[in-house]
Amino acid sequence: MNRFIPPSLTKAMPQLLSLAVILFCNYLAFPGFFDIRFQDGRFFGSVIDVLNRGAPVVILAIGMTAVIATKGVDLSVGAVMAVSGAVAATLAVHGYPLPVIVIAALGVGLVCGLWNGLLIAFFDLQPIIATLILMVAGRGIAQLITEGSIVTFTDPGLIFFGTGAFLGFPMPVILAAILGVAAILLVRRTALGLLIEAIGVNRSASTFSGINSRLILLLVYGFSGLCAGLAGIIAAADIRGADANNAGLWLELDAILAVVIGGTSLLGGRFSILMSILGAIIIQAMNTGILISGFPPEYNLILKAAVIIMILLAQSASASGLGIFLKRELKPAKIERQEIRP
Amino acid sequence: MNTRLLPFYATLLICVLLYAACVIQFPNMLSTRVLGNLLTDNAFLGIAAVGMTFVIISGGIDLSVGSVIAFTGVLIAVLVTQHDVHPLAAFAIALVFATLFGAAMGAIIHYLDVPAFIVTLAGMFLARGLCFVLTTQSIPINHPFYTTLQGLYWRLPGGGRLTLVGGLMLAVFAAGIIIAHFTRFGSYIYAIGGNRTSAELMGVPVGRTTIGIYALSGFLAALSGIVFSLYTSAGYSLSAVGVELDTIAAVVIGGTLLTGGVGYVAGTFFGILIQGIIQTYIVFDGTLSSWWTKIVVGILLFAFIALQRVLVFLSERRVTERSMARSTG
Hints:
Chain A is built from 15 helices and six strands. Chain A has helices spanning 9-29, 46-69, 77-93, 98-121, 127-146, 156-163, 171-189, 192-201, 203-208, 213-239, 251-261, 273-292, 299-317, 324-330, 332-340, and strands spanning 36-39, 42-45, 151-152, 165-166, 169-170, 241-242. Chain B has helices at residues 6-25, 32-41, 43-57, 65-82, 87-111, 116-134, 144-151, 164-182, 184-194, 196-201, 206-232, 243-253, 265-285, 291-328; strands at residues 139-140, 153-155, 161-163, 234-235.
């Protein structure tokens, strides 16, 4: 079985259907929703805007998917975004060259992620607690770096990450797409994805069967931190400044929500990065739809809550084993065995 | 010595040492005025933290408290200023609503068997969204009854003031200790947190207790919202953002195990005081920025979790050694 083939269409049906419904609602609310025009060397349009605005959450969701597949959760990504944005902005203000800035900001994200991984893999802390530490302290550290103010910069190279365009598409979209493809190739072309799922299903069993669970957990959290670092650079470049208080605020929740909408269970095991990306796009399509329909944005959160509750109901109805999508939710371990077959 | 009590003693010791260190640097901190303010300023946090302690002892988590606090504040402000409802009636409405809200979350967690984390996350979005729907503005409350309540205090020796809200927090902590250690409901909570399956087999009504725990957390969050609205004299939909994290931090620093089953309401009280003392120190110092609070709280969180891990590790090793000694002997 070729593992690179994205999850079959039947499995993705509920998500694709909800995206179609949301897009159709957007179209009804705003007939020009699907209009795309080419101007100044790049595409413009509401659909492009959905992708562009959704890029940071997509990037976070890619890292979060791997984390959740190991039966963990990373609450610190929002705070790590603030830290990496603060590092990027501060270095840019001091006139460092672009490669140094990017590597430093990504490196800080990676270090934050590895710190989480260290606590979880080697000190056996619960993921929710271990990442809570950085979630609380991270914004403090970011403010320490920016010295409590909003650092604005004018480095054109760095700003390009947020508002530039490549091949007609906004830079954040390109970056998210590259990261997504790379991550999917990495987990599905190698055994890594399988090992991650094995740890999520049963960590001690995986360790006994010879998987280096600790190393993989460390890498997974490091990867999540790296993703958060990249998202932080984009968020900072987008507003041309680092706001330690608000950069990435509550995005960890959006990322978790995207993964859950994508059908990856919070109890670990089977995961799909592509579906999480789809989940993130669904969330953003909803946000954009509410904005352009002239609906008060106040209803955004209520709608989000309603969506989560509906998904919860759908996942719990799986207990009775109805439907293909629901069955998959019911018996992740069983599917797992089928997946391993050549 | 009971190793389960060690984290609590450690919290107590750190709280006293921290206060002593502050007093050495700023002798003025040793006054009942500072103590009174410490209680008043952290009253809303403390009341919400009592609810969170119960939730965490039961092995769950409640991310919705901050939003419920904000919603209560906004609801009361709207009812009092726009609909001429007496504050007491508004308080009652808010308490009933939040209790039902919590109970509904508990019911979803138990009957649909969904992780508490994701259910209360939905609750957090829902409550915050309801705030925005009610109003996006900050509504000041200028009701004579509010002025009366805010003016109530008991003068401590030395000029300090134990305000109504500070006293209410102490009362809630006292009630929390009684519920946790002297009622059947309290034992049920510890039993579920220790091991849900065995609790169920022993005949603990898991469903009713789970609903009760989250209803209690909702009720206390609303009470905390009332205190917050008395403290700020306003209702604002963006207030109390992130309070759930502060309360979780206080609970963990107070020695409650996040895996459930072990914890003390009194420990949470000192967890709140530690956070309050750090903040007061920063105010007294004047040169440090407020974000140092976050960093220090993060470091303390780490220290306490590390301490708990060491204790759990030691006690597990002792158990295995004992059982090995028994099997060989």
